[in-house]
Amino acid sequence: MMGHSEGGMQIMHYACKYPDRVSALVLLATKAAISPADQMAFVARVMRRKDEPWFPDAVKAFQSGPPKTDQEMVAWLKKLLPA
């Protein structure tokens, strides 16, 4: 199984729950867990860019939740990735 970022956390959970169904994991840019300190550091890094012109759209995209279609995913990522 392969997972990136949050997806890697999900497949680690799956592998722990169903070890007999998983022969190998490929984890890309994945943490085992996110501590409150990590979360605060992330928010601080993003907030340093609050004066950027793309910032309001990125915040809205983050708050909107995951997209439901491929087209929505493209639009969502274009707004979110600058952060």
Mean pLDDT: 86
What share of residues is helical? 40-55%
Low-confidence stretches: none
Instruction: List the secondary-structure elements in sequence, H or E.
Output: EHEHHH
In spatial order, strands of the major sheet run 1-2
Structural class: mainly alpha
Apparent shape: globular
Q: Provide the gyration radius in Å.
A: 16 Å
Number of structurally distinct domains:
2
Proportion of residues in extended strands: 5-15%
Give a count of the beta strands, DSSP E runs of length 2 or more.
2
Specify the number of helices.
4
- Terminal CA distance reads 28 Å
Outline the biggest β-sheet.
Answer: 2 strands, parallel
Task: Pick out its properties.
2 domains, mainly alpha, 54% helix, 7% strand, two-stranded parallel ribbon, 83 residues
Give an overview of the whole structure.
With about 80 residues, this protein is mainly alpha-helical. It contains 4 helices and 2 strands; from the N terminus they run E-H-E-H-H-H. The protein folds into 2 domains: about 1-35, no CATH class; about 35-83, no CATH class. It has helices spanning about 5-15, 35-45, 55-65, 70-80; strands at about 1-5, 25-30. Strands 1-2 form a two-stranded parallel ribbon. Helix 1 links the parallel strand 1 (about 1-5) and strand 2 (about 25-30).
